[in-house]
Write a structure and sequence with these properties.
Blueprint lengths: L1 H14 L16 E2 L12 E6 L5 H17 L4 E7 L6 H11 L5 E3 L4 H6 L3 E2 L1 E9 L6 E10 L5 E3 L2 E2 L7 H11 L13 E2 L5
Parallel strand pairs: 2-3, 3-4
Antiparallel strand pairs: 1-7, 2-6, 5-10, 6-7, 8-9
């Protein structure tokens, strides 16, 4: 009954234009310069941004997986931030959403959609991995560059169609590759979810 009700919600939202499966952009996203980074990096080997929305069913159903990955990799010098990119989000809705899902203090709003543009994120839920971009002369970090942007896993096949459990954990595999110094694999498919709202 719950699954049927969820599929009905997804179908209604898709008719309204709020849910779109969007492929990752063909062009590589730009780097984020150190002076413009709106969050703490510290000694992180990688930063993961989770793009989420308080009113997106797929985003909310994927949040437990985000929290699991955060718990799994935080001890390996990976920083995690939950980004609300939609211009329609209200402070009250965000506070309630944070309390409901246990996001706590690692949340950001993206009112200018700077992070969404620079990483190439188009959907909630979607994840981006950024790594320090080392300067050539002195070896100091001069900002962050995006090495992965896309789905967390393959749980959702299309709108209203999902597996009981994912068979591929794209984000986790790519994050492990970053930490092990291996090439970062591309996502195995497009992210499925709610399109990021831009009312400008």
């Amino acid at each position: 009954m719950i699954a049927m009700r969820f599929r009905a919600i997804l179908f209604a939202l898709s008719l309204a234009g709020g849910l779109l499966p969007i492929a990752a952009p063909a062009q590589r996203p730009a780097s984020l310069k150190a002076a413009s980074i709106p969050f703490e990096v510290g000694d992180a080997r990688a930063v993961v941004l989770f793009f989420i929305a308080s009113d997106c069913p797929i985003s909310n159903r994927t949040l437990p997986e985000m929290l699991r990955v955060q718990h799994e990799f935080s001890a390996r010098h990976v920083k995690f931030w939950f980004v609300y990119p939609n211009l329609t989000e209200t402070p009250a809705a965000i506070r309630e959403h944070e309390a409901t899902y246990g996001i706590k203090e690692k949340a950001l709003t993206d009112p200018q959609q700077q992070l969404a543009r620079l990483t190439g994120a188009n959907v909630t839920p979607e994840a981006a991995i950024l790594v320090p971009h080392t300067g050539i002369k002195d070896g100091n970090s001069s900002g962050l560059r995006t090495v992965y942007v896309g789905r967390l896993d393959d749980r959702y096949l299309s709108l209203g169609t999902e597996r009981p459990a994912p068979t591929r954990h794209d984000l986790e595999t790519s994050l492990a590759a970053v930490l092990d110094g291996r090439p970062v694999p591309a996502p195995g498919g497009p992210p499925i979810g709610c399109s990021i709202v831009n009312t400008r």
